[in-house]
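Example 3.2
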Amino acid sequence: MTIDDAIAIHLTSAKQGIHDAEQLQGLSIDEAYRVQLGILDRLVNGGQRQAGWKVGLTSTSLQKAVGYPQPVFGYLLESARQPSPASIPHGSLVRPAIEAELCLTLGVDLRGPGISLDDAREAIVQVAPSLEIIERRQRGRDLALSLVDNAQQKAFVVGDPMMADGLDLAAVQVDIGIGGRSVARAFGSEVLGNPLASIVWLANTLAGHGLHLAAGSAVMSGSFTVPIDVAAGDSVSADFGALGCVRATFA
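Structure, written as tokens:
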């Protein structure tokens, strides 16, 4: 099976609501990324605009649960960006959950390999409180199929940005609430020790695919907590303290 064959199989199956086509089982991680990036090329060539990237599996507990010892990436489309507060039809989602993250915006290109934490710190010009909306579209735990399907990405809700100068992102704390009740708290240090480490990993990993992080790109740096399920009617908030609060309602 060629990569073009795999892309066609996934796109055809996804239109039917099948996101883990049997024909694609057994793909390697490298093959899965090639399919994912091929789908992205088709979307961009078809008129979609890429907003940036997402980084997932940024906690050791999630990596152990999945059985994969490093982060993963997916892409962000501009059409998936929603300003806070957002209203999202719950009925349009497949087993949805939210992840509280920081959305980091680059002011300059970052080209790996060899990107360091200092390089990432200097490259980030804005940081915004955010929620990623994910869907558990696969029935099993085939990581390669999840990567083909853009690492569960559905949408991202972004609050007001602020300048990143001098911010200690590892020390940022989030308080996640549903219906006004706090359900989780965590620090940015849960994200690879520092959300900036997501930028380092992403820039160096994209280099292996002949890609780089472009100036102006948004990067969802990874969840502070495990994914939190949301039900119809839930009103979710993620309060990042001095960085602000982001909200979404699942009508």
